[in-house]
Amino acid sequence: MANHETNLLETLTEPTEEKHNKLIIDFMYIDLEVCSRCKGTEANLNKAINEVTPMLNTVGYDILVNRVLVGSEEQAISLHFDLSPTIRINGTDIQPASKESNCGSCNTITGIDVDCRVWVYKGKEYTEAPKGIIMDAILAEVYGQSSASNEGKGENFVLSGNLKNFFDQKEKQRSKDDNMCCSSDQCC
Fold it and tell me: Per its UniProt record, what InterPro entries does this chain match (predicted)?
């Protein structure tokens, strides 16, 4: 009988190959060099992922993060990107409600007024996605309690005037920079 107990114990402690589910997080932004809102949201996203990853691995989830610099109007339209920064989990915006305010750091990129996302979490407004809202969205997705949806974001997507102006102005500045030459014989 002792031999039978040993075999049972060995069976219980054998490594098992578990199938892991994937949690895909898309972090989309217009700038990570100047925009304080995009940089702060990325930092909070990294903190949230670092805290929740060990638990998610334990319950059978792997996290894949896609970081996407949205650099053109065409790309924004193809991604249905309407607010910067945006975080989507498995294709769904973690805060589909649209709210924006003037972003001083993005104004310096283009020289025009630019609005960026305002996050609303537990009744307060934040210019960077709070770590808590990100963790809540991840856990809600894993445990099937996500209330976010992408309704109204279908085939009839129209880029906001704010982002259209941002990309137009960036393109004008790029063209202007490309046409500037140094005083020497070579262009810069």
Answer: DUF2703
Q: What residues make up the domain containing 141? A: 19-145
Structure confidence by residue, pLDDT tens digits, 56-106: 999 999 999 999 999 999 999 999 999 999 999 999 999 988 899 999 999
What distance in Å separates the CA atoms of residue 160 and residue 101, rounded to the nearest whole number? 14
Structure tokens at 188: 């810069």
72: tokens are: 């053109």
Q: Is residue 157 part of a domain?
A: no
Domain CATH code at residue 122: 3.40.30.10
**DSSP letters of 23-37?**
EEEEEEES-SSS-HH
User: pLDDT band at residue 146, thresholds of 50, 70 and 90?
Assistant: low
Strands 124-126 and 119-121: antiparallel
Is 57 inside any structural domain? yes
Angle at 116 between CA 111 and CA 117, to 5 degrees: 175
**Tokens of residue 160, six digits:** 């906001």
Q: Is the pTM of this model over 0.85?
A: no
Other CB atoms closer than 10 Å to residue 153's CB: what's the count? 14
DSSP label at residue 125:
E
Instruction: Please report the pLDDT score of residue 10 as a whole number.
Output: 46
Number of domains composing the chain: 1
